[in-house]
């Protein structure tokens, strides 16, 4: 922790690559009011919605699509779900080739059924091809594909799927046709199963909508709506949980979602866990859900999105053809480094530990500074009770502690960003700004810990400098 003041002292002969003059022009100038969207790199418009609000949003989308296309509401909902609620895109594709759209969406079979449904219903006794029990034709049900089965078999099929959490992806017992909502509800009689089905379906609809994200807060049932799908911070106004809208994990600016995922996985791995993950699990190349290989066959089907792919290369299984074995051929790097494998491994470990130690150190500092924050609150209470000022008089101390946490949090997440950056001028600029931010944060931390003996003007000036450093870095490097 620095013991110096907030002014950065620079040796006349120091090599700062010309960045110092550019980023340290602190002349006070009169500024016109600015648009927060341009002034604040973390500015993000979002709304917290209840389940009822989101259901109304879904219903409006369904009604809008039904008004534009001759489809039933249940099929409109399936179309919207399978195409990420892109109404205009669905309408365009439907007008270009309605049959093709319905087929690729799993709503219409590629080959029309030649079964006469009216004639089938008039049959007095007919065996079900699954349970082999005979019923009258009226006891059979089918989708447009014409695969008829008794209601009992349909009910059993639905119960199994729902208990596994599968609803919108439920398929016909005889083919890959998706089962619409009205068909399922017409078969299910048990109220708890109907409720479970609708609950899981609602969850699937939210997850497929690019403008919606469930709040990850404990026992929080609210949903965030945002017009843009970006890796920006949202804070639930009900449970106060802060998270990244794009990936749903802890907010991680300036690091992007994919990079922080790699970093956290790397940090969490030990030797046995890393070996197991490498050997047995991979992310689905279409929906990115983690899949475990539990058999010898390399033909995999994602249980979530039903995508068929090759375990070895993660390519589309249908495109393998004669190139099937190409995916297992290792392509040597012609420019392999001259160093030994052990030397390269040691250097890689050294680099990782450098960044990890700093990442972990700032995480520890955040926890310790939270204790300092609480001590400040307790001390303010004592002063107010002793008539040594009001809450308003001492509020600047709480503001300083809160800003310190905000800056420290950003600084912590600069280290994964730097770890994965390629060497070059951009990384040099980033590391310069990172160092400047770190220096100001340590100065602020020092003054916050000695808040009662620090001049208020000096503390507030340090707060301003630290926040400007943080904002500058985010403006230049925040990944969306």
From TrEMBL:
Q: Which domain of life is it from?
A: Eukaryota
Q: Where are the transmembrane segments?
A: none
Stretches of the chain forming a coiled coil according to its record: 434-476
**Catalysed reaction, written as an equation:** [E2 ubiquitin-conjugating enzyme]-S-ubiquitinyl-L-cysteine + [acceptor protein]-L-lysine = [E2 ubiquitin-conjugating enzyme]-L-cysteine + [acceptor protein]-N(6)-ubiquitinyl-L-lysine
Could you tell me the EC number(s) of this protein? Answer: 2.3.2.31
Q: Where are the stretches annotated Disordered?
A: 1-24
Uppermost EC category: transferase
Compositionally biased region (Acidic residues) = 8-19
Q: Which UniProt keywords apply?
A: Coiled coil, Metal-binding, Nucleus, Repeat, Transferase, Ubl conjugation pathway, Zinc, Zinc-finger
GO CC, sorted alphabetically, is: nucleus
- Which biological process, per GO, is one annotated for this protein? protein ubiquitination
Q: Which GO terms describe its molecular function?
A: ubiquitin protein ligase activity; zinc ion binding
Name one matching Pfam family.
IBR_1
Cited PANTHER family:
RBR FAMILY RING FINGER AND IBR DOMAIN-CONTAINING
Similarity annotation: Belongs to the RBR family. Ariadne subfamily.
Q: What is this protein called?
A: RBR-type E3 ubiquitin transferase
Recorded source organism is Nephila pilipes
Which gene codes for it?
A: ari-2
């Amino acid at each position: 922790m620095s013991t110096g003041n907030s002014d950065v002292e620079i040796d006349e002969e120091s090599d700062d690559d010309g960045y110092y003059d550019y980023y340290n022009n602190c002349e006070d100038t009169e500024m016109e009011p600015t648009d927060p969207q341009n002034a604040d790199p973390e500015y993000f418009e979002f709304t917290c919605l209840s389940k009822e609000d989101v259901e109304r949003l879904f219903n409006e989308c369904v009604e809008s699509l039904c008004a534009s296309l001759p489809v039933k509401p249940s099929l409109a909902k399936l179309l919207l779900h399978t195409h990420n609620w892109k109404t205009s895109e669905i309408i365009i594709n439907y007008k270009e080739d309605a049959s093709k759209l319905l087929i690729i969406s799993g709503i219409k079979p590629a080959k029309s059924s030649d079964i006469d449904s009216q004639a089938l219903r008039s049959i007095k006794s007919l065996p079900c091809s699954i349970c082999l029990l005979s019923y009258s034709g009226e006891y059979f049900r089918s989708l447009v594909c014409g695969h008829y089965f008794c209601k009992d078999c349909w009910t059993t099929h639905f119960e199994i799927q729902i208990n596994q959490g599968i609803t919108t992806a439920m398929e016909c017992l005889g083919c890959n046709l998706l089962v619409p909502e009205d068909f399922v509800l017409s078969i299910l009689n048990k109220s708890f199963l109907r409720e479970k089905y609708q609950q899981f379906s609602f969850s699937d609809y939210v997850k497929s909508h690019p403008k919606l994200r469930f709040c990850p807060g404990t026992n929080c049932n609210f949903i965030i709506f945002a017009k843009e799908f970006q890796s920006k911070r949202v804070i639930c106004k009900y449970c106060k949980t802060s998270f990244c809208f794009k990936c749903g994990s802890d907010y991680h600016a300036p690091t992007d979602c994919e990079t922080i995922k790699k970093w956290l996985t790397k940090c969490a791995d030990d030797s046995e866990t890393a070996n197991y993950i490498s050997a047995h699990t991979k992310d689905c190349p279409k929906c990115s859900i983690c899949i475990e290989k539990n058999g010898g066959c390399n033909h995999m089907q994602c249980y979530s999105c039903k995508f068929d792919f090759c375990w070895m290369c993660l390519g589309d299984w249908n495109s393998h053809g004669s190139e099937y074995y190409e995916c297992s051929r290792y392509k040597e790097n012609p420019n392999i480094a001259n160093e030994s494998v052990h030397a390269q491994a040691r250097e890689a470990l050294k680099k990782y530990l450098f960044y990890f130690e700093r990442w972990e150190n700032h995480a520890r500092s955040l926890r310790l500074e939270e204790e300092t924050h609480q001590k400040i609150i307790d001390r303010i209470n004592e002063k107010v009770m002793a008539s040594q000022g009001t809450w308003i008089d001492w509020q600047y101390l709480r503001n300083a502690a809160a800003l310190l946490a905000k800056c420290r949090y950003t600084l912590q997440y600069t280290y994964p960003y730097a770890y994965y950056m390629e060497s070059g001028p951009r990384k040099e600029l980033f590391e310069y700004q990172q160092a400047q931010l770190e220096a100001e944060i340590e100065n602020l931390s020092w003054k916050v810990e000695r808040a009662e003996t620090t001049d208020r003007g000096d503390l507030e000036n340090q707060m301003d400098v630290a926040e400007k450093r943080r904002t500058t870095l985010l403006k230049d490097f925040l990944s969306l």
